[in-house]
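User: C-alpha cells for this one?
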Amino acid sequence: DAFVVLRQTSFGREIYAVGADAEGAVKAGINVRRVVFAVYCIAGLCAAIGGLVSASQVAVAFSTFGLPGG
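Assistant:
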C-alpha cells in the first residue's frame, strides 16, 4: 500500500522532504537527484503497466488511443 511506503519507510519520508522543500532536503543530507529519479522511474513503470492493461482490454492498438474523440 502506498500509504505504508510513504509514511513508514525512510524512502517515503525522503519523498515528502524533497516534495516539501528540496533545498531543505539537501541540507538534511538527502540525495535529491536520486529521490526524484526514483520517483520518476516508479511513475513511468506505473504508466507503462496501465498502458499495457488498457491495451490488453481493447485488444487493438491505435495511435490516437486515449485522445479526445480518438
